[in-house]
Write a structure and sequence with these properties.
Helix content: 10-25%
Largest sheet: 5 strands, antiparallel
Strand content: 35-45%
Radius of gyration: 31 Å
Number of helices: 5
Distance between the termini: 71 Å
Number of strands: 29
Strand order of the largest sheet: 12-11-13-17-16
Length: about 425
């Protein structure tokens, strides 16, 4: 059934009444003009109680003036579509917590205390969890239902299940009658789009042709929308900031336009050589006296790391694949090579096995890759080189597997890559 968009209606009164000689409660709902004949005095508050005769019985009326508030929404730019389109975004007026819900119920049922209602609401949560843990589904009829689901995948029917942290989920499904009622009663209000803001959609190192990489001798292309600013006129700027330390306002811009910025980056030095993780932001004024508007790119940028004296008898260790930590999560401790080479090392989180997969890559996305090495604990591992690579092996030591896995899962969408300049 199609539910059309409806306009706001005049205020209504919801009248709750309970017969004093009966335990059950009934409810009357109607617009103000239909329920006003019940009253011998005007409403004095959003909620008020009246005693009167109704159908020969003495009843207590609890009246609530219901303001027909609208459901607010605004159009937002969808950065994932070409040509550009817009998403319809719900804008909540408020977030009601469990105390708010209990207070609403207490106003409808004044003979029940708010404390008792809170206890019942919390007890309901506990009962639902207990039922789910007993392997049951929970169905509240015309409201919603709870059930369990698994998101893991097995390569064979005899495989072990992945970790429950990545596998077991609770699914809550709204019943169709509940959804239909919401749709029938929805009154929508369109809000204007957000204040104009700069938006960074992509950052690429143009010489290496790699996304989310910063190279001191390279050129970075920043793509997006509403990026135009005048660095000399003071209307905005671009900042590169280390996640551990250091920040530099950028000054070298071969090109600045509304949709792209070409930048020769000045990269701040951080406390430790393995702290090669950075944020980039753009800010601008859209009018002479307008507010400064800023946008931070939602992905981390990483600088290449140099591995010295590889192949020597006792090469120095090089920290890699780390964020802002005091000590490196992973270190290069040795390897074999026939010549200097710039390559990449990646660590991917395998959600099925809840382990990390390490490998060496060449400098072109989707091209040559070395053999995968499964890493599940701290320790030393040897990564084989890829076809035609001067580096035929790289020895690494994982010192903080738990922190590394958490960073890859939460900050890097399951894949972390470092560029390594390997030197003999």
């Amino acid at each position: 059934m199609k539910h059309p968009v409806t306009e706001a209606q005049p205020d209504k009164y919801t009248v709750f009444y309970e017969k004093k000689d009966e335990l059950s409660a009934s409810q009357y709902k109607g617009p103000a003009k239909d329920s006003s004949h019940f009253l011998d005095k005007p409403l004095s508050a959003p909620y008020d109680t009246y005693s009167m005769q109704l159908h020969g019985a003495t009843v207590s009326l609890s009246l609530r003036k219901k303001t027909m508030a609208t459901i607010q929404w605004r159009p937002d730019i969808n950065t994932l579509t070409v040509p550009q389109s817009y998403r319809v975004r719900f804008v909540p007026r408020n977030t009601a917590n469990i105390q708010d819900i209990a207070a609403d119920i207490a106003r409808q049922y004044p003979n029940v205390s708010t404390t008792d209602i809170l206890n019942i609401l919390r007890a309901e949560d506990e009962v639902i969890m207990a039922r789910l843990l007993d392997g049951e589904q929970v169905d509240k009829g015309e409201c919603c239902s709870w059930s369990l689901s698994f998101s893991g995948r097995l390569d064979s029917p005899d495989d072990m299940l992945p970790s429950l942290d990545d596998n077991l989920n609770v699914k809550i499904q709204v019943a169709q009658p509940f959804l239909d009622t919401i749709r029938r009663g929805a009154l929508l209000e369109r809000l204007p789009m957000n204040e104009k803001l700069p938006m960074i959609s992509q950052v690429e190192e143009t010489l290496l042709k790699l996304p989310n990489v910063l190279a001191a001798s390279g050129v970075v292309m920043i793509n997006g929308a509403n990026l135009l600013f005048d660095p000399e006129g003071g209307s905005g700027g671009c900042v590169i900031e280390g996640t551990r330390s250091g920040s530099i306002i950028q000054t070298r811009f071969p090109v600045i336009s509304n949709n792209s910025i070409m930048l020769m980056p000045e990269i701040p030095e951080q406390d430790n050589p393995w702290n090669n993780e950075y944020r980039i932001s753009v800010s601008t004024h859209y009018s002479e006296h307008g507010t400064l508007c800023s946008s931070i790119y939602d992905r981390f940028l990483r600088t290449p790391l140099t591995v010295h004296d590889l192949g020597q008898a006792d090469p120095p260790e090089t920290g890699i694949l780390t964020g802002s930590a005091d000590t490196p999560y992973v270190s290069v401790i040795g390897g074999g090579l026939t010549d200097n080479e710039t390559l990449r090392i990646q660590a991917i989180h395998d959600a099925q096995r809840d382990m990390l997969l390490f490998s060496l890559l060449n400098m072109h996305e989707g091209d040559r890759i070395g053999g995968l090495v499964v890493v599940g604990v701290n320790g030393e591992y040897t990564l084989p080189g890829f076809t035609n690579s001067a580096v035929h092996s790289l020895d690494i030591r994982v010192d903080d597997y738990a922190a590394l896995k958490a960073m890859i899962r939460h900050d890097y969408n399951g894949r972390l890559v470092d560029v390594l300049e390997v030197r003999m």
